[in-house]
Write a structure and sequence with these properties.
Oligomer: single chain
Strand order of the largest sheet: 1-2-3-4-5-6-7-8-9-10-11-12-13
Radius of gyration: 20 Å
Number of helices: 13
Strand content: 15-25%
Structural class: alpha/beta
Helix content: 25-40%
Number of strands: 13
Shape: globular
Length: 393
């Protein structure tokens, strides 16, 4: 398993898990000038990065920077973390700028609550992350000032308590585990006595990009204490085998020992994991460290993301099918997903140029659509449902 002994010229810590997680955040790389001390940048690349970061800020932990091969301009970890000129391309779905392909805005109930499915409430608890991923579908929000975040989680809990149809809550962001531990404790305490909640999820990419956070014994105690009252799960977000470091494995071990189930929601990304070998190694590697492969999301048609990250579906279906043939049994249980405005759609496969999808979640205003089959005509470039012609069978 890879350690984070850096290929970078600058010396980096060797024992990341011994660092104070809050103090180390102050060492994050947030400017082009800071980045130049670690990675070689051409004159044109530097100019592009300065332009990009005016709109979409950069934030890279030194730990994650240490996973980048500075001599490889096409390094997949670099692509996930470092701004690029491609982010200046604003084209989204159907050639237009797409701000909200998942339909979040229309389901916003205030206090950070998104109530898209009758049984699930998602609470955006913060818009801060330890790293600003370049493929983020909420990148128009990430990095905004703190006044844009949820100011009173208790108001969100009151909404949840008043809606008995809500059986589970997702605490999301941003990355809620980057909040102070005492704040996380209070947030979970606001949910623990709601009788109709079966389980709670805390979505976090910190195990991947900032495992230092999980060396905090107090955080582990908070997770364990809540787990004695309600089932707690953690969706996380490994995209590439290089991210499966010894530090990440230790973070996952500590979380699992606190009784938390960890599931992975990867994104299918061009130049990162869109080949059979990488996808196979990723899913098998997740099982090795105790993480369940859960979803593989088709990259959304978000402005400044789609152009350089989205894989055409015709090619993507074949890659996923071939990779599944090579995976361990439990590794291939993940679902290949389109998170669309109408709900979540599983990509089941293709017959010739006809792609078969099944709707596995439907918006609360159209519950009858759940479990229906959809058929679309594949073409060489289409990367989203709306790019493909409907097929009647």
């Amino acid at each position: 398993m890879k350690s984070t002994t850096s290929a970078l010229e600058n010396d980096l810590p060797t024992d990341w898990m011994a660092l104070d997680w809050q103090k180390e955040l102050s060492n994050n790389i947030t400017s082009v000038d800071e980045l130049k001390a670690y990675l070689p940048l051409s004159y044109d690349e530097e100019a592009d990065l300065r332009t990009v970061t005016e709109t979409h800020p950069m934030n890279i932990p030194r730990y994650y920077l240490g996973l980048i091969d500075p001599n490889d301009a096409h390094d997949p970890i670099r692509k996930l973390a470092v701004p690029a000129a491609e982010e200046l391309v604003v084209a989204g779905a159907m050639g237009e700028t797409t701000k909200d392909p998942y339909g979040d805005d229309k389901h916003d109930k205030g206090n950070g609550i998104l109530h898209k499915y009758s049984y699930t409430a998602l609470v955006v608890a913060t818009e801060y992350c330890s790293m600003y991923c370049r493929h983020c579908f909420r990148k128009r929000m990430v990095g905004l000032p703190n006044h844009q975040t949820v100011e009173n989680f208790h108001n969100a809990a009151k909404y949840i308590a008043a809606h008995p149809e809500i059986t589970n809550v997702v605490i999301s962001g941003g990355d809620p585990l980057l909040l102070p531990t005492h704040v996380i404790r209070k947030m979970l305490a606001a949910l623990e006595d709601i009788p109709h909640l079966n389980f709670v999820r805390i979505g976090s990419r910190a195990p991947v990009v900032y495992p230092i956070r999980f060396a905090d014994d107090e955080l582990i105690d908070v997770l364990r204490d809540f787990g004695r009252k309600k089932t707690l799960q953690m969706p996380t977000h490994f995209n590439h085998p290089v991210e499966l470091t010894s530090e990440a494995a230790e973070a996952i071990r500590r979380v699992r020992e606190a009784g938390v189930t960890v599931n992975n929601q990867a994104v299918f990304l061009s130049g990162v994991n869109d080949d059979v070998e990488t996808l196979t190694e990723l899913m098998n590697g997740l099982l090795r460290i105790g993480v369940n492969p859960y979803y593989l999301y088709q990259c959304m048609p978000v402005a400044r993301v789609r152009h350089h990250f989205q894989v055409p579906l015709k090619r993507g279906v074949d890659i996923v099918d071939e990779a599944r043939r090579r995976m361990d049994g439990y590794a291939k249980r993940f679902k290949f997903i389109i998170g669309h405005d109408i709900g979540k759609l599983e990509i089941c496969g293709r017959s010739g140029d006809t792609m078969v999808l099944k709707q596995i979640h439907a918006r609360q205003e159209a519950p009858q659509e759940c479990s229906r089959l959809l058929f679309r005509r594949l073409n060489d470039t289409g990367g989203w449902l709306d790019d493909l012609e409907e097929v009647d069978l």
